[in-house]
Design a protein that fits this description.
Largest interface: A-B, 54 and 54 residues
Oligomer: homodimer
CATH architecture of the largest domain in chain A: 2-Layer Sandwich
Radius of gyration of chain A: 21 Å
Number of domains of chain A: 2
CATH topology of the largest domain in chain A: Dihydrodipicolinate Reductase, domain 2
Chain lengths: 416, 416
């Protein structure tokens, strides 16, 4: 791990769409110990825009490329961050590790189980740090819930639900204009294409890959109507894809079974009109949290009147149960987008490089979470059949050593 | 149909537990055109209690029996209502129809597909009215949503969710003391044991058995912990069943696929601490309703700020979209338990007998909805395998004639 104990980290960005530009500027504005020294994107105008942002905010002129593989040849690059399209996440991660560059990728799902295994094996062979930038693992509520679990508030965990429930019809429909990858994925794939915003936190709560694992799943897709209807209504019947038969069902439901008997229900729901929700729900023998109620109920603690159990606001529990990282963050001053979790997930990556510690979302998490996508495609293609979820740890999940991750710890067994 | 166009209906009750007594008293207090003339329960003390209630409130002395089959021999009985244990619903309905007695049963699930077919065939052979008393079909919100669907507010329907999410640990654990049927079912069965409170309304929204049908399902159960933990905490380690391995998973998830591409997700969740919810959610191409938000969002109508779609209270839509039946009910004065829906579902049965019209929840609805229970047991037993849902209409679902049900209509195509 060549980056161990290095104070300043030289970062390259690969993928400079809206999300890439956003994350890069967050780093420019909030992380003086990070230098952005190289940039790549398939579109030259995006590289130019990003280059100008770096020059304006930091004074240095990063090198620009149309192919990320050129970035990997630069000896001065310590780490590469790839908020690129879904298809390129695995290739960039694999090539980066092979080139000895630490790598962090934005979220998405896998296209095959084989690429998940390649990721694991390449990391095991090279020892190069790799991390999934699953920002929702660092959400204030998600981390408060994690801390409450550690303190025993939920008892034994039984069931969780989550989703990506976000009206993205416009983004999908205008995918060519926006140069956005969702359009082509929705045209050709039917599955849980975006599982990690909910599955990431749930996996940490359920100690997946550290004493527990996901065993199997089955997925089910509704018909596909939402994007076509949006196009016809907003752009007319002659607009591209107005009559195209999208592969992706408007609502995709996935049920996962875990080694210790827990169930997880995921919902992908981005092609119909609705307010945003990650649909989180966690149930244990002693309590429940439900995101859409912003509510908790704890047995023997929360008020009830006979059969009438009353929701309490989870916010009433923040002062007592806020995760140590978020206590620090609130004292430090919350920075960056998506309520601060973008900052935290990037810092978790950067500081793991500086300190030579393991990444808190590691290669086994990545492989397990991202595999859900192609496995759900398989299940739907076979009519909702159960499909097995590989054990990417090859048995190490049973008694993996604690991660010792300090303040960015996301695992139940860590001492933070 | 011997009861056709009969003004006063002579009713017998079979099953006089807490629910039976409640429904019987509701009829005694609110329905002067209904006479309670016979009673049965396996426990003599319950029969005595019910008899006294009738004498006190109406003056007549009903006949009492320990076996419902004796009730069926009484020529003066027009109809039998059976809020009995789950196991007896089918036998009572079958025997009643064979005896020429109209019959309405409280909700529950089936134990085999064969008994669902027997129900259908017996009704088709005898022509005797039969109805499931699914009160939630008559909930004010459920009916408002039904009316909104008819008016096109949701566009094309895509997906629905619902559940029976109710902390019943005490009722289950004390089943022997309470003489309640849940205990034995939870000890021996693993499946969606109580699907109809949510599936009933959803089926009416989705035109199941009238242009649509449920094709297949798969079910998944979490581990079972909640009831054991409740017993140990509240009654001690030596209390009955403290160490018993309950068959029923604490959370059972069922996914149903429909003929026109809709998906339905059901959740049975009664063994963990939580506030009550039926977890209803309905999504179409133009709008969404979510019970737990008490909220709706309609495309182009509800407020949004860029990507930020705002929930509106469904109550803001009641004045304009309240179902005609509920308009009448509010003018008439809402009566009876569970927010009035117990009254409405009982009146729907009684008035169908008085008017000689079909029951609004008919034998095909009953068979399809109740079959979910034993099919989900099959699916769980086979590891989450897809199982087919029979077409109990034998093809009639494609173009069944409108029900012509007047004010108690629950079907999308009816003219109310």
């Amino acid at each position: 791990m060549s980056q161990a104990a290095k104070k300043n980290i030289n970062v390259a960005f690969s993928g400079l769409g809206q999300r890439g530009i956003g994350l890069m500027n967050l780093m420019l504005e909030t992380m003086p110990d990070v230098n952005i020294i190289a940039l790549s994107d398939r579109y030259a105008d995006r590289v130019e825009q990003a280059k100008n942002d770096v020059i304006t905010k930091r004074g240095n002129t990063p090198k620009g490329f149309l192919d990320y593989r050129e970035v990997l040849t630069l000896p001065e690059v310590d780490a590469i961050i790839t908020p690129s399209n879904w298809e390129s996440h695995f290739p960039v991660c694999l090539d980066a590790m092979k080139a000895g560059k630490a790598v962090a990728t934005e979220v998405g799902g896998a296209y095959s189980i084989e690429q998940c295994w390649d990721l694991v094996k390449t990391h095991e062979q090279t020892g190069v740090p790799v991390m999934l930038l699953e920002n929702c693992c660092y959400g204030e509520t998600e981390m408060t819930v994690l801390n409450m679990i550690k303190k025993g508030m939920f008892g034994e965990l039984i069931h969780a639900e989550g989703g990506y429930r976000h009206d993205l019809r416009e983004q999908v429909a205008l995918g060519n204009e926006l140069r956005h990858y969702r359009l082509n994925n929705y045209k050709h794939r039917n599955g849980e294409v975006y599982p990690t915003h909910e599955l990431g936190p749930i996996s940490k709560w359920f100690s997946i890959n550290r004493g527990n694992r996901m065993l199997s799943l089955a997925s089910f897709a509704s018909k596909s109507r939402g994007v076509n209807e949006w196009i016809k209504k907003n752009r007319g019947n002659d607009f591209e894809n107005a009559e195209y038969t999208f592969a992706l069902g408007d609502v995709v439901t996935t049920v996962i079974k875990c080694a210790h008997g827990e169930t997880i229900v995921l919902t992908h729901d981005t092609s119909l009109p609705r307010p945003y929700s990650r649909g989180n729900l966690l149930q244990g023998t002693k309590g429940i949290w439900m995101e859409d109620k912003n509510g908790v109920f704890f047995d023997g603690i929360s008020p009830r009147d006979g059969w009438d159990h009353k929701w309490e606001s989870i916010e009433d529990y923040y002062d007592h149960y806020r995760h140590p990282l978020w206590k620090w963050f609130r004292e430090h001053g919350v920075e960056g987008g998506h309520g601060g979790m973008d900052y935290l997930v990037l810092r978790a990556f950067i500081e793991s490089l500086q300190n030579g510690t393991k990444t808190p979302i590691d290669v086994y998490d990545m492989a397990a979470w991202m595999a859900i996508t192609c496995l759900s495609e398989d299940s739907i293609a076979m009519g909702g059949q159960q499909v097995p979820i590989p054990d990417f740890t090859n048995g190490k999940w049973i008694d993996r050593e604690p991660p010792v991750l300090g303040k960015y710890c996301l695992d139940e067994i860590c001492d933070c």
